[in-house]
């Protein structure tokens, strides 16, 4: 990723920034001419994407370090239909603490001009307006830091760098009782404990959901343990009341998924004291020294987590919805250990034994006897675990979503939940089990609460017109429920819908790549960064995993290997999505204490087999 003065003549002139409107600029519309003389970093993101949210946080120290020479611009490029709504984009910018200008690009105009193909994608523009680097995925902080230092030095020397204050203008704050609350639980005394996510606190509310009794956390971003008024969180989400016997043994009553800190925190309700009980504070990354799909197990305070989003007590342990790496983990608070349980880190939808199944950003959990229900947000799916197997009842994949109810049918012969293959959700974040055994889903991007009947597979809409509901709390006896209406900053008891919602079906359209009949060579191109070498001190430095949806798309070539080139054979006339995960480990070549890095990227490539198409499929892994 090195940049040299002599290279600039070969650089591509950066396309103009075009979209619907600008946010965080005080109403000013920016052009590249306005930014000439500054280094510009474009962050193509969408607010459903956990990897995009990781990058927003990775960029915070870089923005601070290069504040007088770098302008970061978020280009919001939506995947889901809801993410095109202007109000939803405005809310997301505040919700996730985006403190730089944002271009709202609902038609993907700037996305296409910069040839982005994945969320997130980063592009760097030098002070003279040339694109000097692009990269997809997360984990590029170190590489960006080196590139920016080189750009600053080069353009300071030739007088083309203009230092000064950037164009960011923060919007005025709005008063509200809560700010983008995430999840809620009932406490034994009848009060409610809510994760007040954008305020980085927990709020205990009266049973009416409208009166704040106390707050836990200082309200400042941080990870400090200690008394209620000194401890700190970063965008907490899931909250779980431990069983009394477990709480007595560990000395805290409530477990909190402290999402952006990549931690689990324990809260003692008697005085609100907070302590860290799992995680190091660093996000989990695949380690080339071991199989990245192997179970991460051991001392919970020594194991990295990745955006824990929700929690549920199931079969003697706390299950963690590990949204950041598309897995479910188990945490035993008594022994203080944590272990991977379900999912392989591949983001997709595949049922089967929990260790081999695929999840896609699980964000809601609810236990019901021997079943654990999962709101799998990126696949717009409702799924459950039973007897060590993961099953799907609603949802078909990463790119099909919508709002469709179904009438259901008769009970299944074996008493298992009946699938509802024609029902559709849109990025659900919450799930709960009602007193009568029905499953309630916070269908977040549809602004609705949905009801699924396990016995018949019937799916109905109970309430609509909500603003990004993120959790639902059924009444302990009866059909009513409270909703965490995150986008409206409140808990609400909605009116039940009188009529069924009209069916709406959507699909995220991406360019389809034709591939040849017969054998096709998949080449993942990786160039070792200047000054670095492949790190083979712990075994092969590269790894390639290939899967397909549907699995019948590939007749040869699926699986895991260490070579970045693979022979694939597609089924005649087939079409589907080829999922590719590649990684490469490097270390500084000459340093006395070399820094080591792991570059990893996931691709979902829609393909169709066609006569005369190319027999080589090339992807670029950027270090």
From TrEMBL:
Residues 8-153 form the Thioredoxin domain. Coiled coil: none annotated. Signal peptide: none annotated. Keywords: Repeat. It comes from the Bacteria. InterPro entries: 6-blade_b-propeller_TolB-like (IPR011042), NHL2_NHL_rpt_dom (IPR045302), NHL_repeat (IPR001258), Thioredoxin-like_fold (IPR012336), Thioredoxin-like_sf (IPR036249), Thioredoxin_domain (IPR013766). CDD domains: NHL-2_like. This is Thioredoxin domain-containing protein. It comes from Actinocatenispora comari.
């Amino acid at each position: 990723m090195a940049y040299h003065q002599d290279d600039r003549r070969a650089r591509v002139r950066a396309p103009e920034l075009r979209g619907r409107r600008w946010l965080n600029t005080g109403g000013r519309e920016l052009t590249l001419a306005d930014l000439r003389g500054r280094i510009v970093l474009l962050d193509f993101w969408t607010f459903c994407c956990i990897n995009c949210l990781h990058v927003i946080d990775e960029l915070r120290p870089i923005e601070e370090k290069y504040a007088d020479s770098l302008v970061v611009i978020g280009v919001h490029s939506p995947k889901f239909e809801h993410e095109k709504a202007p109000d939803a984009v405005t809310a997301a910018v505040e919700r996730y603490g985006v403190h730089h200008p944002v271009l709202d690009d609902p038609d993907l105009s700037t996305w296409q001009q910069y040839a982005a193909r994945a969320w997130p994608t980063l592009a760097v523009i030098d002070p003279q307006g040339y694109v000097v680097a692009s990269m997809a995925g997360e984990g590029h902080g170190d590489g960006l830091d080196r590139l920016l230092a080189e750009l600053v030095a080069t353009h300071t020397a030739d007088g083309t760098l203009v230092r000064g204050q950037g164009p960011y203008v923060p919007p005025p704050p709005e008063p509200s009782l809560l700010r983008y609350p995430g999840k809620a639980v009932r406490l034994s005394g009848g009060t409610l404990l809510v994760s007040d996510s954008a305020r980085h606190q927990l709020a205990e509310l009266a049973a009416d959901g409208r009166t704040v009794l106390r707050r836990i956390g200082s309200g400042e971003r941080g990870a400090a343990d200690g008394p209620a008024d000194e401890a700190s969180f970063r965008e907490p989400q899931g909250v779980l009341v431990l069983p009394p016997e477990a709480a007595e043994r560990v000395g805290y009553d409530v477990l909190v998924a402290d999402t952006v800190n990549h931690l689990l925190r324990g809260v003692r309700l008697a005085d609100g004291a907070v302590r860290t009980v799992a995680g190091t504070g660093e996000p989990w990354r695949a380690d080339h020294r071991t199989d990245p799909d192997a179970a991460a197990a051991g001392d919970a305070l020594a194991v990295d987590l990745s955006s824990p989003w929700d929690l549920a007590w199931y079969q003697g342990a706390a299950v963690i919805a590990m949204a950041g790496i598309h897995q479910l983990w188990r945490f035993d608070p008594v022994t203080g250990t944590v272990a991977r349980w379900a999912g392989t880190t591949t983001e997709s939808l595949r049922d089967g034994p929990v260790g081999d199944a695929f999840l896609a950003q699980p964000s809601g959990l609810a236990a019901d006897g021997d079943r654990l229900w999962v709101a799998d947000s990126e696949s717009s799916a409702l799924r459950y675990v039973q007897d060590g197997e993961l099953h799907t009842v609603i949802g078909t994949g990463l790119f099909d979503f919508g709002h469709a109810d179904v009438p259901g049918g008769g009970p299944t012969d074996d008493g298992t939940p009946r699938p509802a293959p024609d029902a559709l959700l849109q990025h659900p974040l919450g799930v709960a089990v009602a007193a009568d055994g029905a499953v309630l889903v916070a269908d977040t991007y549809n602004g609705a609460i949905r009801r699924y009947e396990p016995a018949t597979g019937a799916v109905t809409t109970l309430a609509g017109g909500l603003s990004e509901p993120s959790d639902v709390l059924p009444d302990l006896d009866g059909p009513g429920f409270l909703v965490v209406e995150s986008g409206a900053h409140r808990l609400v008891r909605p009116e039940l819908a009188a009529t069924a919602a009209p069916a709406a079906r959507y699909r995220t359209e991406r360019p389809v790549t034709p591939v040849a009949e017969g054998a096709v060579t998949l080449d993942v191109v990786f160039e070792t960064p200047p000054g670095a070498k492949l790190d083979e001190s712990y075994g092969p430095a590269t790894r390639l995993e290939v899967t397909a949806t549907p699995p019948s798309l590939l007749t040869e070539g699926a699986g895991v290997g260490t070579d970045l080139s693979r022979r694939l054979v597609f089924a005649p006339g087939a079409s589907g999505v080829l999922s590719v995960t590649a990684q490469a480990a490097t270390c500084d070549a000459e340093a006395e204490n070399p820094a080591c890095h792991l570059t990893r990227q996931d691709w979902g490539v829609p393909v169709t087999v066609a006569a005369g198409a190319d027999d080589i499929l090339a992807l670029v892994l950027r270090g």
